[in-house]
């Protein structure tokens, strides 16, 4: 069988899966987020996952509304929160006055969102991928937490009224997970889904430990009576976008996919346009989440519009190109 037929077969088997766009739990680039949500809504994502911040949610909803008017697409809106310290909820910083004038500025070159300029890191554009941190030869770049506190969670949920919430957790953090789950339950917000994002970030932990941790959380979430999503993070960040990074999440899926609690299973962490190629034809998960890679392939087009103080959908030809790129990424997972 030649490779073209192979891909057609794979597309058939992988079709109609759940796909989520991850805008980034610390991504506050409002202008880009609106375009991003418009593009991927038209391309066919089922849900869009954004930071738990009202202005971000407004921008995401504006993009989704645009897509609804254009083609009737209306993905659900999920917000990400964490039950503790988490690299998804961080930003980078450095003091630009300490930079030597002859620095070749590797930090600026490596940043996928052009968040770095001569004034340092522009907080709103940084989503905490961490790539710049080790790029500085003088170690000038550090990270800081950027997380919603438990005290603010109930009020934020009431203001935003998301369709779904994703709780980022770690294997050993059961007590703080229970606290967050209770806050969500007591907020009386009617959710359509609760997602749990967990990986093998902690050293000394094995896939079986992750499976046990997810079963513990299943018992806790049962009383919420809401459909559950288990996000298997093969890598800690979706910022790892090299061609083979999707192998880690596929490996994790093959290892414990059949031992997870009831709910929809979604791959994440290093996922990109190659991830489906590492899957077996008869063993696709329920879905996938795309983060950095989804943003990277259309970022130059969004930047072009933003530099002219416009939204990308004000440039129909470029918008069409961005939607085409987004659809290509989703193709192995969707019929159209
Ligand atoms: S490389 Fe990543 S962490 Fe560094 S400034 Fe850019 S977005 Fe932020
Ligand atoms: S790489 Fe380091 S020294 Fe160079 S511009 Fe970036 S932060 Fe400054």
Architecture blueprint of SSEs:
Layout: H1 3-14, E1 18-22, H2 30-43, E2 47-51, H3 54-71, E3 76-82, E4 90-93, H4 106-110, E5 116-117, E6 120-121, E7 142-145, H5 153-160, E8 164-168, H6 174-186, E9 193-199, H7 207-221, E10 228-233, H8 246-256, E11 264-268, E12 287-290, H9 292-296, H10 299-307, H11 316-330
Parallel strand pairs: 1-2, 1-12, 2-3, 3-8, 8-9, 9-10, 10-11, 11-12
Antiparallel strand pairs: 4-7, 5-6
The structure holds iron/sulfur cluster (SF4) (2 copies).
* Structural class designation: alpha/beta
Proportion in β-strands: 15-25%
| Total helical elements | 11
Helix content: 25-40%
How would you describe this structure to a colleague?
By secondary structure, the protein is of the alpha/beta class. It has two domains: 3-88 and 147-333, Alpha-Beta Barrel (TIM Barrel); 92-145, Alpha-Beta Plaits, CATH 3.30.70. It is 37% helix and 17% strand. It is built from eleven helices and twelve strands. Helix 2 (30-43) packs across helix 10 (299-307) and helix 6 (174-186) packs parallel to helix 7. It is globular and about 55 Å long. The model is unreliable at 1-14 (pLDDT under 50). One iron/sulfur cluster binds next to helix 4.
